Amino acid sequence: MPIATVDPATGETVTTFDALGAEELEQRLARADETFRTYRRTSYAQRAGWMRAFADLLDGEADQTAALMTLEMGKTLKAARAEIAKCAAGARYYADNAERFLADVPYDADAVGAEQAYTRYQPLGPVLAIMPWNFPLWQVVRFAAPALMAGNVGLLKHASNVPQTALRLEELITRAGFPAGAFQTLLVGSSAIEGILSDRRVVAATLTGSEGAGRSVAEVAGRQLKKTVLELGGSDPFVVMPSADLERAAQVAATARCQNNGQSCIAAKRFIVHRDAAEEFQRLFVEAMRALVVGDPTDDATDVGPLATEQGRTDVEELVADAAAKGADVLCGGTRLDGPGWYYPPTVVAGITPDMRMHHEEVFGPVASLYVVEDLEAAVALANDTPFGLGSNAWTEDPQERERLVEGLDAGQVFVNGMTTSYPPLPFGGVKASGYGRELADLGIREFCNAKTVWVGKAAAPDAGTAASE
């Protein structure tokens, strides 16, 4: 894929970029290595000051940054502004909490015959971040804020269709006061990742992306014995029981499925409804999906903009067509919109069976799969019948049902009576093919730290004769 800005609303190429040459790439890797040696010794207070200045720049220049995000990947301007506000909040969260999260942790010194015993968290070095286009700012900031506050330095290999957003982020971090080598954008193609990750100066990697990309990065890192954190795909269930507030559940369901134009790993994708609630929920859900406004992402009246790439829309079309050909019912949407741009309408597909691709594959667009089950146990079994395990939603007012769903859903997160999202104060990550490791909260900042164990022996008792003579 060329490194280029292509407007999803029109399909027109706006600008292209040359990939870094070998000499330029070497210079950036050397700069990261050199910067880390001094940056790691800066104080938490100094880093926090820079991080808060970065948050202020995000807030103060939100309109310019939001316009770039909308231009490059098609999210609505109002969604872009919300993403920027979330990034600023995340930056301030780590500015406020990093020192506390990474404070020395004492252990029982007497149990190991020591004067002191504790763990000290120390940064690892330059970390490679391989990031996707769907949340082009937040995905990076939720790595960069904790990594920089811990004393690491970052190397960003962003998706090739959001190069201006990637460069903008480096510019803002540098303008905030961070040393020039603390965070660098590398405009390179995917073929360069193996060489960068294999370089001795790069100590770890984090990736948010597809399952295939995660396997490739994990394989390279494994050969080099380097730490990785992977956040991969999701096919999140949205379980609705009869005790739920069905009207609210249906409204949230439409937002949960079509947020970010349906292009979110933690978007609800499979809607699993108890038979006793199915008819009413389906009516309300289809109404809510039909009511969403599809159109120009720069218009604040728009709810759903274009998909980010032409291939992405083709992939969605093929999955819906496969289901329809095998007997599924398309309750709304299901056909691309006429005109320029890569638009696809909010779509609900019912009657999904295991022989349909939609049953097993992630649909990365505003398409919902609707299932009807007989009871709670069938809902849990169907929810877990996926290779993924990122997020999940449970809608019930029954305490016993809630506990069964919280305990039984195989996922990194369970949101009860609310939409799955990421919050800086909560750990974020998945299980199964959705990856491993955690971002955000205290767990996220410790992922790229050395938890160094320190044992300090007890002072020797003074010699009795010497003590008496003194």
Automatic annotation (TrEMBL):
Keywords: NADP, Oxidoreductase. It holds the Pfam family Aldedh. The keyword Signal does not apply. InterPro entries: Ald_DH/histidinol_DH, Ald_DH_C, Ald_DH_N, Aldehyde_DH_dom, ALDH_GabD1-like, GABD/Sad-like. GO terms for molecular function: aldehyde dehydrogenase [NAD(P)+] activity; succinate-semialdehyde dehydrogenase (NAD+) activity. Residues 3-454 form the Aldehyde dehydrogenase domain. Transmembrane segments: none annotated. NCBIfam families: PRK09406.1 (NF006915). Belongs to the aldehyde dehydrogenase family. This is NADP-dependent succinic semialdehyde dehydrogenase. It comes from Vallicoccus soli.
